[in-house]
Design a protein that fits this description.
The chain has 8 helices and 5 strands. The strands form 2 sheets. The chain has a 3-stranded mixed β-sheet with strand order 3-5-4. It is an alpha+beta fold and 197 residues long. It has one domain. 34% of the residues lie in helices and 10% in strands.
Length: 197
């Protein structure tokens, strides 16, 4: 049975004089069209910019191809799309839809992709707490990141909630049979102040 294609197109916010549309008749171009929705949501709440402001970038701007904002946006979107490993980005950096996250359609240099690869993203992932150092040029402010999570939560409510419940119950992993350690439960072990190892 032949697949019926939907002729309708979905229009998204464009930039730099370009239209961004999603169609179902263009062939296999990307498997990550959900990035378009993430980009639209980011346009509403400004997540990428807000997280990027929690970082200090002391890299030489003349030698920098990918801004911290691009690295942050790329990493957040990839995790939301199910790409937890940084290794995936050597392929993802060439994806045209994910490239929209950088707000550019062409790379800054001919020998680079629009998005960063795993080595560049490692500089963000292994950023230094506090001030940048000679070997860690990207640093982050842990307090600013914590405050941002609270601010994002509060922004999602018309008025501050009267109560916030944090449910920290442990997850049980049932075991069958007589395996060694079947009665282990991390909640009780760590709750009693004992340690493993």
């Amino acid at each position: 049975m032949q697949t019926q294609c939907i002729p309708d197109q979905l229009a998204f916010e464009g930039f730099d004089g370009h239209k961004v549309v999603a169609g179902f008749d263009g062939g296999a171009i990307t498997s990550d069209a959900g990035a378009l929705l993430l980009r639209h949501v980011d346009g509403v709440i400004g997540l990428f910019d807000r997280v990027a402001r929690c970082f200090v970038d002391s890299r030489d701007t003349n030698c920098t191809v990918h801004s911290v904002r691009t690295l942050v946006g790329q990493r957040i979107a990839a995790i939301a799309l199910g790409y937890e490993d940084v290794d995936d980005h050597d392929t993802l950096r060439h994806d045209p839809v994910l490239g929209l996250l950088s707000e550019r359609l062409t790379a800054k240099r001919q020998d680079c992709a629009v998005l960063a690869g795993k080595s560049t993203l490692n500089r963000l992932e292994h950023g230094h707490l506090g001030e940048p150092t000679r070997y860690h040029k990207i640093a982050y402010d842990a307090g600013a990141l914590e405050a941002l999570f609270v601010a994002l939560f509060m922004d999602a409510h018309a008025r501050p909630p009267d109560e916030i419940v944090l449910d920290l119950d442990a997850t049980d992993d049932p075991l069958h049979g007589d395996q060694e350690g079947k009665f282990f439960h991390g909640y009780y072990v760590f709750g009693c102040g004992t340690s493993l190892g």
